Amino acid sequence: MINAAWLIPLLPLVGFLINALGKKWLSKNIVSVVACGSVLGSFVIAAGIFIGLLGGAGAQTLSLGELMNAGGFSVSLSLLIDPLSVLMTLIITGIGFFIHVYSVGYMSHDEGFARYFSYLNLFVFSMLMLVLGANYILMFVGWEGVGFCSYLLIGFWFGDNANNDAAKKAFVMNRIGDVGFLTGIFLIFITFGSIEYAQVFSSAAAMPAGLAVITTITLLLFIGATGKSAQIPLFTWLPDAMAGPTPVSALIHAATMVTAGIYMIVRSNILFTLAPITMEVITYVGVATALLGAFVAITQNDIKKVLAYSTVSQLGYMFVAVGVGAYSTGMFHLITHAFFKALLFLGAGSVIHAMSGEQDIRKMGGLKKDLPVTYLTFLAGVLAIVGLPPFSGFFSKDEILAKVFEHSTVLAVVMVITFMMTAFYIFRMFFLVFFGGFRGSEKQKSHLHESPAVMTAPLIVLAVLAVAGGFINVPETLFGHHALANFLEPVLRPSLAIIFSEEPSHATEYMLMAIAIAGTLVMFAVAYSRYLTKSHVPAASEKEQSFLYRLSSRKGYIDEFYDMIIRKPLDWISSVLNDVFDKNIFDRIVNSVGELVVVGSGVARLLQTGKLGFYLFIMVAGITAMLFFNFMF
Amino acid sequence: MENISAQITQVAPLEHYILLSAVLFSLGVLGVLLRRNVIIMFMSIELMLNACNLLLAAFSAFHSSAAGQIFVFFIMIVAAAEVAVGLAIIVMIYRNIHSIDINELSKLKW
Amino acid sequence: MNALLVLSIAGLAALFSGFSHNKKLAVIVSLLGLAVAFTVNVLDWNTAVRYYNDMIFVDNYAIAFTGVMALTMLLIVALFVDYKESVEVPNAEIFALLFFSLAGGVMLVSYSNLLMLFLGIEILSIPLYILAGSKRHTLTSNEAAIKYFLLGAFASAFLLFGIVLIYGVTASFHIETIAAYIKNANGQPPALLVAGMFMLIGGLGFKISAAPFHFWTPDVYQGSPTIVTTFMSTVVKTAGIAAFYRLFAYAFPAITAEWIPTISVLAALTMTVGNVTAVFQSSVKRMLAYSGIAHAGYLLIAFVSISSNPASSVLYYLIAYAVSTVCAFAVLMVIQHTTGSEEVDGFKGLSKRSPFLAFITTVAFISLAGIPPTAGFFAKFYLFSGAVKAGHLWLTIIAVLNSCIAIYYYFRVITAVYSEGTDSTPVELGTVQKAVMIITAVLAVALGLFPEMIISLL
Asked: How many structural domains comprise chain C?
């Protein structure tokens, strides 16, 4: 099975080509079959390889040739098949498949049906290259590929300029991160003389911890990760990215692409382990992002914005986990989050679908009667994300908390606060959408309907995963045996040898679980009393609101802040440079040189007189001059 | 071969041959540069080739190697071929413009 | 060596195929002949055999350049299928002449005796004199023929005199014997030999159109039928450069001090004259002629690093230049036919008339300008980096500045392609024509992506 691994990225690529080239001729049915089938095919192969790995097969590098080789710099075209990449592949193709199926229903009335699926397949291909590539260049190719697809899909409905702006914002923010990532790769090549994982990691493992160069490399890589995975300071594009179709938000901006940063860090774990300073930076950035995301999500009224900020916050959790060296914990949360966040987004999509495009939760309410399947599956997602046992989020979140607690008590307290905020905004959204009375227009009310089976089936599958996903990594405390951590152990072995980690005592773990659950329940009660018993609906106007409320609802004024400290000074500098230096000095120099050449050319061509006698003369003169100068001097 | 070599160098030293050829070659060059009639220019080029032939023959005798003289035959053949093509071109032009003055042909310039 | 035989026979076969009433026969015979010639040529790879009493030495160098020339001519002959310009000579005769010319070219890349160098140049040139004048009733074509002929014969006389002088000193025409003689002279070569060498530079410099022996190039290129121009600027240039390089790599490597300063000056002069003059041209054909001069200048840069064997860089450069040039000329032929002009303005509105042609034009000119990822960029890169390593920094700086100038006039064509034009009738393309364009454009990009394919050959 492992020899067929090259088919995994190839199938979606073929799907992309078919749909992109045939978008004018292919019927919607064929497009759907090609798009879903190619991803399903990849999933089946990946599953086969996964079973092989479970059965004890070792990691393997599958060489497909050479991408380039110039002047001592060679890049192999090879795929790395190991537990980490296969796990990621399963998530991408598995969840990807269900989201493809869901999209068939969601996009059924859209004119750009084939275009949408070709982008989606291209995205899956790029994402697979990102995780399967056996060197940093292939990862970078995939990295850029997913960024590009994300850009295309955010601006999918390009008729509306706001969508295009959101797409541009995502692209630019990502480019800033990419500069860091790319510089990091350059530095890796300079330091290790190779960009192949195998060489880099084995040389790195022999190095002492805390080298300045490794710290620089990892910091640069982390800058790349903050762009792609929406961390402070580059996270602001993700909420805007919700302009794209909802299944895209589920696949790209929740389950897969935004976790690329986590994947990259876990893949390069040995480098990061050797850079304690970077690890501290990651931890604090992660905690801050988690807190900020949750804080902003509390007051958002757009259902997708709530989920977007929630994603920012949850990604923060993952960075905290890898920041404290608990790579497998980060991966664990990545997986559970992929399940429940994809589910929540698809559920939100179903709600939006039913509400004829309405996204404002203030105009919803009481939808549980009309949308029973969506309601139940959404409930599963809610319970998973707030982390009530035995739903998946409980296990992963709790493990993060335990690891953070080991690291620092203060951070653990902040994390608990974040958990509570998470519970609050999730229940707030949930109650406002599904309970109470309907607050929308009559027209919307008459249209309310459950989504078709092609959309609800993926919801059900994801709901099952969201409920049960946590059992892949049950800790010893709860009588499990950390299956996921053991599975990933070969990838993390070099780091585990360095990080000395003391398992917290069972008593501590029970205590932390209890605190987290208690906090969640308190918040449930608060949200319940506020939004159900009192039927409180968030105000439409911002007047007479507390400072904190405004801070949250205006998204922490981060966009305004960036505008003030970056855009405005840059605008000013560039206008000065343009008016003073560019127009008056550089343009003049450049233009004069250009004009000089043109004038020179006008003169030089006059030499070409067309007279044969002159040509002959110059030839003789040339040869004579050659002889003369060489014998005289 | 040795006999001929001895005889030739008895008649005149090698330098004289080189000088003569150089003068002939230069005359050819001057002819090409100064005349405007294509036929005469062409004849001057033939003169240059013949200067080469003479020099080749002299060197060949001087070095007692036959290669130079064989080369002369090739030059004569090539010259004949060039004459054939060259005269054809000249005739073609004469038919079109009724002149073989090279200055008449300077449409292609700049 | 077999390639030489095949080419001569194919030339005759093409000539006699003119008796047939089937007009296509000559093309088919020619394509077949070239394909066979290429194949038998490649079969000799890594054998290095000396033929005819060591008159020619078919080493890998010879085989590589012969292959390039045969393939380039194959593409050019294929263009004949859809060629519309009135050539007043039957196709069969054109092909025969091209074949004979190519045979001369093969001798030029594989000679090991100066006699073969001389014969090669003549066999290469004499058919070209006829081809240049093949539009018998067009004055410009006549003018091109007579200019080319007189200057060519004149230059051969100098070349010949140089050969004679070298023979006079070394008593041999064999390039390796000459090299051995020079080596024994311990860096003090006789003046007569050095004078002969400079005359050779003059004669060969004419063939590759190095300044100041380049004046014939624009006039002859412009006056000749476009398809002949294509042949001259690709195959003939390849043969000339390869012969030039072979001479200096085999015969004069021991006295680089004598000729490197001169060649560097020639290189700098050639590329500057070519590029600067090209800027003002409004005729694309004439502009490409000047660009050809400029490229000859870049290629001369390879000579200054001759001790580190830049043969493969030269090969790569010539391939890159040949594919881009054939591509550019293929487009130009279409423009000439549809608009009746070869001016830059004729390219206006091309992106509307045929997006395909617009794209092909862009690739061709970008590659000529030397912009990545096309082959033109890496070709320049290898040549320039070789010169830098050999310590010729100033020459490289001049070359880079020249490349900047070159971008200006190449992009004039590209901007014309994407600007508004008056004519908006779609352009019809022949299948074979289209295929040649696609092949050359793909090669121009593919060679840029995988330069190792060529660079590791020699």
From this structure: 2
8 Å CB contact of B108 and C219: yes
Residue A379 contacts residue A369 (beta carbons within 8 Å): no
User: B56 to chain C: which residues are within 8 Å by CB?
Assistant: 164, 167
Do A399 and A508 share a structural domain? yes
Q: Does the distance separating the beta carbons of B110 and A613 come in below 8 Å?
A: no
Interface of A with C in 580-599 (CB under 8 A): 594, 597-598
* Distances A423 to A292, A298, B7 between C-alpha atoms, Å: 14, 10, 118
Min distance B79 CA to chain C CA atoms (Å): 9
φ, ψ dihedrals at C350, nearest 5°: -65, -30
Task: For residue C8, give every residue at least 6 positions away whose Cβ sits within 8 Å of its Cβ, in sequence order, or none.
Answer: C99, C100, C103
User: Are the Cβ atoms of A601 and C215 closer than 8 angstroms?
Assistant: no
Q: Which residues of A touch C452 (CB under 8 A)?
A: 69-70
Domain boundary at C251, C284, C315, which? C251
pLDDT tens-digit map of C166-211: 999 999 999 999 999 999 988 788 999 999 999 999 999 999 999 8
Q: Does B41 touch chain C (CB under 8 A)?
A: yes
Pair of tokens at residue C113: 């005796």
C449 touches A at CB < 8 Å: yes
**CB distance from A621 to chain C under 8 Å?**
yes
**Neighbouring C-beta atoms of residue A571, cutoff 10 Å:** 11
The predicted model scores a pTM of 0.72
pLDDT in tens, A233-277: 888 888 888 888 999 988 888 888 889 999 999 999 999 999 999
Residue numbers in B near C161 (CB within 8 A): 25, 48, 51-52, 55
How many Cβ atoms sit within 10 Å of the Cβ of residue A542? 11
Total count of residues recorded for chain C: 458
The ipTM of this complex is 0.93
Separation between Cα atoms, residue A197 and residue A86, nearest integer Å: 16
User: What domain count does chain A have?
Assistant: 3
Answer yes or no: are the C-beta atoms of C368 and C293 closer than 8 Å.
no
Gap between the Cα atoms of C326 and B93, Å rounded: 30
- Comparing CA positions, the residue from A61, A173, A156, A108 lying closest to residue A566 is A173
Q: Is A144 contained in some domain?
A: no
The minimum CA-CA distance between C53 and chain A, rounded to whole Å, is: 33
Q: Tokens at residue B84, please? A: 């054939």
